[in-house]
Amino acid sequence: MAQHAFTIAFYDSRSYDRDAFTEANKTFLYDIAFFDFHLSERTVVTAQGYDAVCVFVNDLLTADIIAKLKSFGVRLIALRCAGYNNVDLKAAAAAGIPVVRVPAYSPHSVAEHAVALLMALTRKIPQAYMRTRTANFSLNGLTGRDLYGLTAGIIGTGKIGRIFADILSGFGMNIVLYDPYPIHEWAEENGYTYVSLDEFFKCADVISLHCPLTDTTKHIINDRSLALMKRDAVIINTGRGALIDTNALVRALKHQTIGGAALDVYEEESNYFFDDWSINVVRDDTLIRLMTFPNVIITGHQAFLTTNALSAIAHTTLSNIQDFVDGTPLENAVTCA
After folding, report:
1. Contacting residues for 139 by C-beta, under 8 A, at least 6 apart
2. Catalytic residue among 210, 240, 267, 315
């Protein structure tokens, strides 16, 4: 059982976070302070007096912020997500502050959301929904296409990518894969094929991104790769926003050299996602331009948002903290390459 004195500053909290973590914490009994703002240079002072900080994808942990956390006595950084590109891992290591994460919560939640985006995009569900809301039952302009027989390309074959592949295989799609660390046995068992990156972009009708954001994968979708794609290819991104060069995507959409995109993440999402901007001015011209295309669907980083995933995130995060408190090996620690 955790010591009651162990305190956690919990940043960027939403009602669903508070509900899930409060329920999970009945087992651990930590002292958690929920803050609804991001951890940043301006707000890091609020971490004073806490043993750990719990952060999400849009909380920024630069070397300066980590140095301040160290000076405030913070001993652990607990990510309640899989990605860690928002943390300066070298600075954390130098400060002697372990970083833990949730490597897998409900991979089905993200994979299924990617499928939902694909179906909504290819069958023009948002347009149909808006029409019938106003009693317009015309079918003009709503022609979609079968997924059966098309080629689905998946970049990144971790748990989420593999589940996504299996779902689309059930639709009767051909599956091609790209990953610098291929899982050949799994692919061969299921009749999937790993190909080179150029071949991947040339042959895929659907391209879905399920890889982490690294120096190698940043802007893996760019002017060059977009030029290789089929004119009716569609892109699904439930990974990280910066996997796509958004300006290049806008150019391709504007010139109709690809078929469309469905995005649950966006390169500059930290300025807007998870907040209500409906009565404010969104000043990001690129985001606004994306929202004008009829063949683009944007959801606000909600692929993870299921009751199953929230419960798993809470339990794994608090278990990671428990391991730290108990002094046991940190199974989900993140270290510098």
Report:
1. none
2. 240
